[in-house]
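Aim 2, interim progress. The first record below pairs a target sequence with its structure tokens.
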Amino acid sequence: MAVSAIAGAVAQLPTTPTLPSTGQIGWTGGPGAIPGGGIPVGDTTAAANTPSFGQTMTQALDSLSGAQAKADNLAVQAATGDLTNVHDYMIAATEASLATQLTVAVRNKAVEAFNQIMNMGV
């Protein structure tokens, strides 16, 4: 389901930018996000098992597309009289609508973050 995939991706994003005391400037995810104050080097086991942000977003958009296709299919069945349980269509339509709203909200936040970064002084 697109909602859970997008929510999982958003939950992993850091919430506040911080400036570590080591002089490194960047997004560290808040106090204590990186143990020892630095970026770990050489330990790629966790990163190798975790899908990238792009893969997570692709999966979420594919799931959204699937939810919309399911709702469309059920709408056609309801219109032609082939659907016996109308509540199945209502549930699918609501899921597709919520997934679309969440996707638009995530997109708007990403655009807003991009614009803030572009407006930063160097």
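The second target in this work package is listed in the same format:
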Amino acid sequence: MPSILSGAFGIAVYVLYLIIGFVQMFAIMDGLSYALGIGKVLSFFIAIFLTYIPLVGSCFGVYGAVEVWDWHLYQAILLFFWYAIIVTFAFILTISIKILEKGV
């Protein structure tokens, strides 16, 4: 049985994940530059590392998206915590299916 992430769908998911990662990195870069008053080049190199530190990077990224890009807070939160929504939905769906299978 082929994996759900094989073929064209898998490539599309990978490309979308990369795009989201770059957008997050640039939001973190702009947040750092705006909050700390440092240049774009320095904030870019710091953002490369902070992108993969979940809470710290996400805080600077949400700050950058809201303050620099003028996004609404919910949009910035969705950009950085989209995976939490998907995991929560999958968890609820799995529990619901198990409950329905038991007939409770």
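The helical segments are 7-36, 40-50, 54-67, 73-102. This observation will shape the mutagenesis plan for the next reporting period.
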